[in-house]
Amino acid sequence: MKEYKNYINGKWVSSKSGKTFENRSPANWDDVIGTFPLSTREEVDSAVKAARKAFKHWSGVPAPKRGEILRRAAEILVERKEEVARLLARENGKIMKEARGDTQEGIDTAFYAFGEGRRLFSFTTPSELNDKFCLTFRRPVGVFGIITPWNFPIALPAWKIFPALLAGNTMVFKPPSDAPGCAYELVKILEEAGVPEGVINLIFGSGSEVGEASLTHPDIDGIAFTGSSEVGARIAEVAGKTLKKISLELGGKNAQIVMDDANLELALEGALWGAYATAGQRCTATSRIIVHEKVYDRFLEMFIEKAKNLKVGNPLDESIEMGPVINEAQLNKIHEYVEIGKNEGAKLILGGERLKGDAWDKGWFYKPTVFVDVDPNMRIAQEEIFGPVVAFLKIKNLEQAIEVLNNTQYGLSSSIYTQDVNNAMRAIEKIEAGITYINGPTIGAECHLPFGGVKNTGNGHREGGWTVYEIFTEIKTVYIDYSGKLQKAQIDTWETGE
After folding, report:
1. What is the extent of the structural domain holding 20?
2. Is 134 designated active site?
3. Does a structural domain hold residue 496?
């Protein structure tokens, strides 16, 4: 069993509290991956001081040079992809295919950031006055608090950390307590790649201690967070009091529409992947399947036949199709929602209970679960469950399908299967979501495109692609007047000839 340490100002150090917590595999609770420091506000303060000191130098390093370090990090991650993916599967519960995909997304994001080092584009624009030039620059924000969840323990830190570094920021990184080992490996790779001391600081610990200290610390300039909408609202409330820059990527209640003209086999593959990948523990997971009445019975039968035969078990087994949920508390929450659905009058036709037997008893395995006869206003159709539970809803036409899809507080991802281009275009226009897939599942975002949602899914920012640099930079506007005289914008005009 490995003993992990915090990383502060370029050194690996234990918490002064002397307290630790264990990280166990959700597939086998007897498998202890390691012990991690249960850090305090004192460690956060030390990390912030180191980051603040390092910012002066790091922000002055040319962006292409910062990009070179991220390129090296990407190359190291390529070399260690299988090693990291196995750790990820062990501590997070993702099946190996997904664990490799999670790791690959980190690799892709690092290479994208490397390229952005020679772009970081901004605007030039004409002045309204003669002999005057107008342009903008991107400048780093300062010290960021990075807070990430357990369901993508490589990809989501990469989405934040790599662009933040490329933009010239320094940071204090608080990883999730349920998947902290991947954070350690990621920071070790960045250290090896040449990130200077103090630029990235890694603090393990609880949200109530380490997370809260980051939100309230006066020398942290921004917070980048992925997690639930409830926690996101709390972050906005607390960090907003000191006017920190805040990026929130929050929950979803995503739906896939299946029209009567859809390729049902293709729609079935998408629905199964969207619903049960990562055991439904994705903010983009397909938790509602909205099906046209003409194909509803047939599609439901096809779905049930496949779902009931999914192979659930230890994610390190390459033949497994769905792993465990992350911990006992999450398993209990999922089961509570199943009971809520039954009490609301929805009909449970598959799953709805914990898996039992020698292959599952030491882990947190829940059966793939399906509800039918679901009213769009039921809680199981409105609230984020974050587990392998899907609700089927029957509709008569596209207009009703879009109305049902939009009928939640969230607006992250959406999907429609249709072979009618008119249906597809209407869905793109009318669906209230940050992401819409045509003939694809609700999961599968690519790192070079904007990612995020509307309504209670976030606060308007978009991670991924070029838009993430709007989070991690500030715009400086510059006016260069070479006329040799005082010119007054909005006062000296063409009409006056001055």
Report:
1. 2-250+458-477
2. no
3. no
Residues 6+ apart with CB under 8 A from 401: 257, 259, 290, 292, 395, 416
d(CA 80, CA 336): 39
Q: Are strands 6-8 and 454-455 parallel, antiparallel or unpaired?
A: unpaired
Rounded CA-CA distance 411/16 in Å is: 42
In degrees and rounded to multiples of 5, residue 381 shows phi and psi of: -100, -5
Please state the pTM of the whole predicted model.
0.96
Q: Are 434 and 449 in contact (CB under 8 A)?
A: no
Q: Is residue 449 part of a domain?
A: no
Among residues 171, 174, 211, 142, the alpha carbon closest in space to that of 50 is found at 171
CATH number for position 76: 3.40.605.10
- The C-alpha atoms of residue 216 and residue 400 are separated, in whole angstroms, by 45
Q: How far apart are CA 256 and CA 266, in angstroms?
A: 12
Is 283 designated active site? yes
Phi-psi region of 386 (alpha: psi -120 to 50; beta: other; left: phi over 0): left
User: How do beta strands 132-140 and 143-147 pair?
Assistant: unpaired
Shared-domain flag, residues 284 and 415: yes
Q: Looking at 91, 185, 209, 283, which residue is catalytic?
A: 283
Do 85 and 23 belong to one domain? yes
332 and 387 together in one domain: yes
> What's the distance, CA 96 to chain centroid?
19
Query: Is there a single domain that holds both residue 240 and residue 313?
Result: no
Q: Is position 112 within any domain?
A: yes
214-252 pLDDT per residue, tens: 999 999 999 999 999 999 999 999 999 999 999 999 999
Is a pLDDT exceeding 70 seen at residue 494?
A: no
Q: What sign does the dihedral 243-249-251-256 (CA atoms) show?
A: positive
Active-site annotation holder among 105, 249, 321, 470: 249
Q: Are residues 43 and 123 in the same domain?
A: yes
* DSSP 8-state assignment for residue 346: P
Domain count, the chain: 2
Is residue 208, in this structure, part of any structural domain at all?
A: yes
Per residue in 7-38, pLDDT (tens digit) is 999 999 999 999 999 999 999 999 999 999 99
**Cα–Cα dist 448/465, whole Å:** 4
Task: Using alpha carbons, select from 90, 311, 317, 56 the residue that is nearest to residue 182.
Answer: 90
Instruction: Give the pLDDT band of residue 492 (cuts 50, 70, 90).
Output: confident
